[in-house]
Amino acid sequence: MSAPNVSAATCAEIVRANLTTRWPYHLVHLADGPDDVRAPAELYPAFHTSFDWHSCVHMHWLGVEVLASGHRDDALRHLLDRTLTPDAIAGEVAYLRAHPAFERPYGWAWAARLAATCRTAADAGDPDAARWADATAPLAATVLDLAVPWVTRAGMPVRHGTHASTAFGLALLVTAAEDLGADAHAAALRTQARRLFVDDTAWATRWETSGHDFLSPGLCEADLMARTLPADELPAWFDAFLPDPLALTTPASVVDPTDGHAVHLDGLNLSRAGALHRLARALDRPALAEAADALLAYGLPALDRPDFVATHWLASFAWDAQTSR
């Protein structure tokens, strides 16, 4: 039986739809006064579509990923060219510098990943991606500069299965820093990941899942440590931390697909699939890959739902899962 997948063409269509949808937009902006109440496009010159800032960032990431896979789509390239410009990204950088807790760490992580993916595509010979990589380099530098002192000051991790997850954010940030050649940042982030998580054992799988989760706290932590620990340390740590990982592979069901928080559970199936695929490779455990594909097969039909609460973000996690095999 063939592995479950979403096509590049489907993802490209989803990205185009999102990058041209300005409303509704969930604006998270701490206004200093009446003169600071502004429209999203004024605040965020590049990332003012796709329902919210972080989803807009990872829809850009998905667009670059799809094009890098070999899919041809001139309309998508044109849309990315409109927003991944030096001037637009300079506006985003200025906002992040002025609001250093904004989108911490989830949006930061996707921003760094976007820049890293642009650089990888540029290195593979895509001249458009080369422009995007140059434009987004200051964005990545900014979030990495913000991330290191933030996590260094953290007394304990945030273990939620939502945007505040320390483990999920650090995992993307570590890999992006490595891919961008930001070796000092990557080393500092790995050091803090080890400090926060290496002593954890016997994760309580029975307490997953919460009703609004789109991330598995346990699998996010294991995924982070797979990117952090030396290969010879990982198996023993993993077995002590998560002795029964298959306990986290029961698909989650959404009762109300029009509820923006309830639909997080669709994303949970997809994000678990991605984490399990990466862990299967790191640990050479085929059973984890089989469980990942079962979750992916269960979760992919959610991409066909018409509600914007699903379409503005789920495709990114589906693509991440299938490309993590």
Automatic annotation (TrEMBL):
InterPro entries: DUF2891. This is DUF2891 domain-containing protein.
